[in-house]
Amino acid sequence: MTSSRLRQPFSEEHADTPPAAISLRRVVKRFGTLTAVDGLDLDVPEGIVLGLLGPNGAGKSTTMRMLTAQSRADSGHISILGHPIPQESKWARSLMGVVPQHDNLDEELTVEENLRVFTHLYRVPRRERAQCVEQALGLAHLKDRKDSFTGKLSGGMRRRLLIARGLVHRPRVVLLDEPTVGLDPQVRQELWGLISGLRDDGVTVLMSTHYIEEAERLSDEVALMAKGRVINRGTPAELITEFAGKLVEEYAVSLDKIASLEDMVHAAGFSTRRTGSALSVLRAEDLPDSLRDRLGAGTRRVSNLEDVFVALTGERVE
Ligand SMILES: Nc1ncnc2c1ncn2[C@@H]1O[C@H](COP(=O)(O)OP(=O)(O)OP(=O)(O)O)[C@@H](O)[C@H]1O
Question: Where would I find the ABC transporter domain in this sequence (predicted)?
Answer without folding.
Answer: 22-252
